[in-house]
Write a structure and sequence with these properties.
It is built from 8 helices and no strands.
């Protein structure tokens, strides 16, 4: 489900909570809405509001930190690919098959990380026969007859291992998301708050507009969190342009 639809649904649920508060205010007997009940509800709503605000703040901070880390990893992968291809280019014409295989592996990596969630299976990601294993085999098969070639192969292998680790981390993160129980509990807290807002105060057009704006603001915070925990899709998608531009086409 797209984050924008989840956020709009959360906004609707919060407004439904406000409508439930209005309905309860009209249906409950007066002795259920006396000063003692008002104090208890306000104190409880203050506690729930504080908890919800803390959780929202922590989630936004955590999602933003994760987003920045993954954007940095994408840049690091692009830099590693440039250095790896440069090392193979310096090795000589014998490394051209490995360079071609590297470009094919990069195309597959981009498709897996930035592709549709439904296509992100683990088939062909690990183990024998994958493009990554063929690339490693090609690097190990390069002759190391001179100290320069030996150093270039060692550098290429080190860069390939670093890139592969970052690639697997990004792949796992690209399929992650905000845990459903966390999202459900947070929306429940916000809905309870909206119900408490309307339980003791009559709703007029001005307060109705204010409630709508507050609900939109809360759902916008949820939208930002959901977008940042899924950084390889949606409106805040991390661009793959740096990786696509890292490896120029080889001359025939």
């Amino acid at each position: 489900v797209q984050p924008i639809w989840i956020s709009l649904t959360a906004c609707g649920v919060m407004l439904l909570g406000a409508a439930i508060g209005v309905l309860l205010r009209r249906r409950l007997p007066d002795h259920h809405l006396d000063e003692h009940a008002r104090d208890i509800v306000r104190l409880g709503a203050g506690l729930v509001g504080t908890i919800a605000a803390l959780v929202l703040g922590l989630l936004i901070n955590s999602a933003n930190s994760s987003y920045e880390v993954q954007r940095g990893e994408v840049r690091q992968i692009a830099a590693n690919l440039i250095l790896l291809d440069a090392a193979l280019d310096q090795y000589g014409p014998e490394a051209k098959p490995v360079r071609l295989l590297l470009r094919e592996a990069v195309d597959q990596m981009i498709d897996r990380i930035w592709g549709d969630r439904a296509s992100k299976d683990r088939a062909g990601l690990y183990g024998h026969g994958t493009l990554a294993s063929k690339l490693y085999a090609g690097l190990h098969a390069l002759p190391t007859g001179t100290p320069v070639k030996s150093a270039l192969v060692a550098e290429a292998l080190q860069l390939a291992v670093s890139t592969s680790q970052a690639r697997l981390a990004l792949y796992e993160q690209s399929t992650a998301g905000l845990p459903v129980p966390t999202l459900v509990v947070l929306i429940f807290w916000l809905t309870v708050l909206f119900a408490s807002y309307c339980l003791f105060s009559p709703v007029n057009p001005t307060s109705a507009v204010a409630l709508g704006l507050v609900a939109l603001s809360a759902s916008a915070a949820l939208f930002l969190i959901l977008e940042m925990v899924e950084p390889f899709s949606g409106f805040m998608q991390i661009s793959s342009a740096s990786i696509r531009a890292a490896l120029p086409s080889l001359a025939p």
